[in-house]
Amino acid sequence: FITVLYILPTLAHFNEKRSVFGLGRSRFTSLKKEIYRSVFCHTMISAVTTVLTLLAYFSIGLLFVHRSLDDIGGFASMLPDNFYQNHPYLFFVFLICSIYFALAFSFSFLSATTVLIFEKEYQVIVFVLIFYLIYGQLGVISNSSFFDIFSSFTAFNTLKNTYEVFLPIFPILGISALFLWYGTNKIIKTVI
After folding, report:
1. For residues 10 and 111, is the Cβ–Cβ distance under 8 A?
2. CA atoms of 13 and 61, how far apart (whole Å)
């Protein structure tokens, strides 16, 4: 349930939705641009916060844990041979700053856009968690790289290539873009 780490920072978006967006057209020249800006800001804050937290966690953990694997899996396919064996810390920094940032961004974007649709915080949390579980199960059942989100979360121990780990993120971004469009139109109609 690491997705909760991505969801919680975006719940602050409810404050803007309930107060700032209520002022609507009288305060902003373009309410739509303001909503897009707010969603992007909350998404980036959540993604960067998550990445910095993971970097701190792995940096502290490096003091107590020693490398015990020789083959880290397919994610290292784009890196030079023996990169993980020679530089395990840099490998995990690469892992965090690439796939975990992309996961944090996509799920934060999904969460920030569902804030525009739902009225209560718990609805956003439950929706995104159920979405994650159903999306992951769809990947297991279909055996499709486009829905195998579980292999993206376990990128450090997967048989998939580097690019295959990123594939499940694109449908999530597409769904989030649809939610952004729908939620923005819903707020604009409410304010008018």
Report:
1. yes
2. 32
Q: How does DSSP classify residue 20?
A: I
CA pseudo-torsion sign 131, 134, 137, 143:
negative
**CA pair distance 166, 53, nearest whole angstrom:** 21
User: What are the residues whose beta carbons fall under 8 Å from the beta carbon of 4, sequence distance 6 or more?
Assistant: 125, 129
Q: What is the pLDDT of residues 46-102, one digit of tens each?
A: 999 989 998 998 888 877 766 666 666 666 666 677 776 677 788 788 888 888 898
Distance of CA 61 to the CA centre of its chain: 23
Instruction: Tell me the C-alpha distance between 175 and 61, whole Å.
Output: 35
Residue 77 tokens, joined = 């396919």
Residues comprising the chain, all counted = 192
Q: What is the secondary structure of 39-105 as a DSSP string?
A: HHHHHHHHHHHHHHHHHHHHHHHTTT-----S---GGGGGSPTTHHHH-HHHHHHHHIIIIIHHHHH
Report residue 69 as tokens: 């694997």
pTM, two decimal places? 0.84
Q: What is the mean pLDDT of the chain?
A: 81
User: And the tokens for 122?
Assistant: 């718990």
Nearest partner of 4 among 116, 114, 129, judged by Cα: 129
